[in-house]
Input
Amino acid sequence: MPDSDIDTLVEFVGVQKSYDGETLVVKDLNLKVARGEFLTMLGPSGSGKTTVLMMVAGFEPATHGDILLDSVPINNVPPHKRGIGMVFQNYALFPHMTVFENLAFPLQVRRMGKAEVESKVQRALDMVRLGGFGHRRPGQLSGGQQQRVAVARALVFEPTLVLMDEPLGALDKNLREEMQYEIKHIHENLGVTMVYVTHDQSEALTMSNRIAVFDDGVIQQLATPESLYEMPENAFVAGFIGENNRLMGRVTEMNGQSCLVEVDAGGSVQALAINVDGVGTRTTLSLRPERVTINPAEGSCPNVFDAKVEELIYLGDHMRTRVSVCGHDDFIVKVPNSSGNVNLTPGEMVKVGWMAEDCRALDARE
Amino acid sequence: MAEAVITAAPTEVSDAVNLKARLRSATARSRRNAFLLTAPLLIMLLITFIVPILDMLFRSIDDPIVGQAVPRAAIALEDWDSGAGLPSEEAYAALVADLAALRTGGSDGKALIGRFATRLNFEQPGVRSVITKTARKAPKLKEGPYKDALIKIHKKWGQPEIWAAIQRLSAPYTVVHFLASLDLHYDVEGSIVGQPEMRQVYITIWLRTLYISGLVTLLCILLGYPVAYLLATLPQRTSNLLIILVLLPFWTSLLVRTTSWIVVLGRNGVLLETLAWLGLVGDVDRPQLIYNMTGTIVAMTHILLPFMILPIYSVMRGISPTYMRAARSLGANPARAFYKVYLPQTVPGVGAGSILVFILAMGYYITPALVGGQNGTLISNFIAFHMQKSLNWGFAAALGAILLAGVLGLYWLYDRVVGVSNMKMG
Amino acid sequence: MKRSFTTTAVAAAGLAMLGLSTFGTAQAAESITVVSWGGGYTQSQIKAYHEPFTAETGITIRSEDYNGGLAEVKAQVEAGSVIWDLVDVELSDAVRGCDEGLLETIDHSILPPGDDGTPAKDDFMEGTLFECAVANIVWSTIYAYDKSKLTGAVPKTIADFFDTKKFPGKRGIRKNAKPILEMALMADGVASGDVYDTLSTDAGIDRAFKVLDRIKKDVLWWEAGAQPPQMLADGEVLMTTAYNGRIFNAQVVENKPFVIVWDGQVWDLDLWVIPKGAPNKETALKFIAFSTDTKRNAAQASYISYGPVRKSAAPLVSTHAETGIDMKPHMPTAPENFKNALQNDFEFWADHQDELNERFNAWLAK
Output
């Protein structure tokens, strides 16, 4: 959605952050978070995403620029007056209080009446299906239960914005997936705005309305999960989200939306010109493994190359096939396990082909 | 089928028995090794810790001297009612016989007279010389009436007090030391009454010991808590350096640390000289900061501070800063977040530090002895006095036993209120 | 193998013990342990007694310091492992230790006659030879002041010590009932000959404490003999009771402007005693005889201002070993100093020390 149309809740205007006065951890961040949106900041560790979250929460001051909440600059508002809910990486449940007391805490500091506190806490606990656990201490709960209490506590005082800092990092895989859906459903039911930080792309893809991919203190791409996967705009995003084959080469011909790239090891590839400056520039070609066909029908794709099967890994629904092509021996092809597919053997010579639309010519970084 | 079940059952039972036996023999070796490894420590604890404490407890009630020294008099006084006048002629005769036997009984007998006289003198001041004098003359008293003869030797033999003391102390065990520790004693009729006011010391000293220990603990919390907080929040490298500064005093002798306070707080010490230079105190009329309770409290607080800082620090180190952040994000201002979230989590450290400091303070000796002066000395100084100067070891043991019981009692109370398992030493 | 090892071990242990005990006795013949009060006093004994004794007999002397009292002696005797051979004690302790069988009796016939041929029993001052103890010096509790701190009138009598109107300032006093109660009575006008009779009555005790009440708020209490000269030097107190030798040392060796007021001095004895069961009793007796002969008794006064107990030694007291000043006027027993002097009554204190110290402590605590 175009920026100008959205009902903005949080806005970053030229925000910079440096801890040591030498290097910028966040470089010139401009971002609008829409009301009711689930926005995920995704990136490797050290990419600056958590720092951004901490600046919103008020625990780290921005070195430069403004953060606006509901169009009001909050740079000088202390954390406790921002009214933002937050779920921490290790939950930060107060160990000396019961679950009930943990949830009652934000209500009590807001001087809410006893009856109201009780009903709100109970409702929040019911929401995370922990209605009967109010008298327990956090230490007596499992990891997943603690996680749900933490979510309930961040929501119980009905903030308009909830920040989550890698909240599922400490859970094992099954529980993590279950919790992803649970948080997603809570988000859908309450309509609260959530800004979520993670380094786990599948988590980001599952839950988010939009994902901001961070690297090196800069948003590399801000888009919906689908377009992020299908249409990465640079080599970093393409590499970070999902699996991707990359071929290095040089642009030899520009042709409107498409271009011709000469791959370093020889051979010419037709591709979509996404992030190239013109003829002669170096480029990374990005290609999803599932978009490659083994032994394509004659004339069905513009890009066909000879390849040698190096390795086969049986994965049930598909066969992960590693081939060497155009001088790269780590080229992956996903061969669906459907009837009528050829049986490959290592060492066999085959042809691989793909469509020009599936092959994106991106920046030559790295 | 049924038969098979019946025969199988006993086999299982006996197997179970065998299994237990096998398990026992399998673990016996490792248990024996574990015991042998700890045996030197256990033996050392027994010899250097348990035995002396038991010996102290025993000494505090053990009182065999009078019974040993004057057995005949003890028997003769058995049925005497101390409220009804002087004892009978037989008791006088028995005492003379006892003393004469001791006097002629070689050096051991003479030593026993001395100990008997000293022992009695603790109860009845001034009778020591009466006993030694009488003992010297006893072998010459060949025939009665002994009563008149003794009263002629010293008029105190004509008063019931000395006889009541002999009667009371002739039992091999006694609680007089414990009574004296609480400013109580037996009167001549054998009932327990308070000491006359001018001899009441120990209640005051016990209360003062409690007061000073409590105050020192409180000051250590007030001073140590912020320091521990600073140490816990600084980067590890910096705080490790500062921890060395906290521990530095441990590498200096207690005596040096105490006497350095004399240099600081003395009449012409650093502090008062500076204040006088600033014109805040006069040259002549300066406040007394040392050789009194103030000096004791200041020096003890300084010396015991590390014992407070370290447990609090180690507890604080384990408290993630995200708790405070969480509290802030939930709407609590810094003060409330600290009070409601941080402080309660440090209670185990404060509790451990407090009990450590309080117990150490209760038994503090050298510092109050050096800087305590008139009103800054504690119960241990009196224990030392009775150990070293008055040689009333039974009394010193009773004071020590009460101190020990008090400390254990406080520990029990702490366990009930806070829970010892809740305590973190480091 | 095993048995031979055990046998060897037992044999070795036996040999070792044999060796140790031989070594022990050899050691015993070579040296004795003499215990005294430390500081300048012990130094004077080392110079005057120990060194000449070792030179003459070849027996070395281990000198140890202690703080007075019979606690260690009692502990050693009761435990049956006496390691001290000779102890320098106060009179009341000598009497009491003897009474309680903690000390060896000493046959006075071992003491040599005076240089002028007077038999020992007549040469020693009256009341200086006891069943278990032989006195070596006369020392005195006096009070002293720092003349540099006073302008105009200077204190001259014992009454001046208790008069804070005439001489405002702090007073240092030993934290013990003895002998400040005697001094208080003398200051209140009781003749020295009547002091102990007065103190034997309740009214007399009350009277002494009333005098002490007058200066109580101005008193700093000391416990170790080294403290009073230090307190005077530091300006902590204007005047203080002290052992005369300590003040002498400060005056003469350290050149402090201290003045001793001899009026109302309470003199006492230091005596040699042998703990019961001392390992080297015979040598200890030899040392007593040696150190209390006329020459040695006079010689020790060259190092510290404590008076000899032998009449024949008094005229031999000469000059200070370091500074060369005449020692006679510094002796407690010098006629000038001895005009209003009281001898500490050990019999009184043996009877009343517990009672009076208790009352003294109670008075202090109030």
